[in-house]
Amino acid sequence: MAGSARVVTVSDRASAGVYEDRSGPILVAGLRALGLEVPDATIVPDGDAVRTALLDAVRAGADVVVTTGGTGLGPRDLTPDVTATVVERPVPGLAELLRADGLAHGVPAAVLSRGIAGVVDRTLVVNVAGSTGAARDAVRVLGPVLPHALDQLAGRTH
């Protein structure tokens, strides 16, 4: 699959250097394996920095942006809320599919992810939970869908 992607890891602690980002590199490697050009993950704290990272990725021409982290119920889990202020057209089926897949694979807490998906300009944005398992599962779930989604966003299909 041709195209480009960006990964944004949302973590107050990883962005402060308290621990190493583990889910971002999994998404980067998985998206590269799908044939997308992907730089290393950008790591930001939750909140307004997420908006900046998303808009920077869109301006840079990314076809897809996948965020990891900040989708739970905690007071600092603001990624879906910030993403919703940027998204122009929601794609709820992708977020629902990620949650359903987690549940089907024995992860009851998957239903607690508040992650959303949508389109900003011609860029698909998908929020993924912050665990390494969620990152691996997201690549598996998104892989079959991304080629058609990116073709649609580029106007190559009807």
Q: Report the sheet with the most strands, covering strand number, pairing sense and barrel closure.
A: 6 strands, mixed
Report the principal-axis shape. Answer: globular
**Percentage of residues assigned to helices:** 40-55%
Structural class: alpha/beta
What would you say the CATH architecture is?
Answer: 3-Layer(aba) Sandwich
**CATH C-level category:** Alpha Beta
Which regions contain 5 or more consecutive residues with pLDDT less than 50? none
Describe this protein's structure.
The chain has seven helices and six strands, in the order βααβαβαβαββαα. The chain has 158 residues and is α/β, with parallel strands linked by helices. The chain has a six-stranded mixed sheet with strand order 2-1-3-6-5-4, sandwiched between helices. The longest helix has 13 residues, at 92-104. The model has no long low-confidence stretch (mean pLDDT 96).
Summarize the structure.
By secondary structure, this protein is an alpha/beta fold.
Question: What's the layout of helices and strands?
Answer:
Layout (H helix, E strand, L loop, with lengths): L4 E6 L1 H4 L7 H11 L8 E3 L3 H12 L4 E5 L10 H8 L2 E2 L1 H13 L12 E4 L2 E6 L3 H11 L3 H8 L5
Parallel strand pairs: 1-2, 1-3, 3-6
Antiparallel strand pairs: 4-5, 5-6
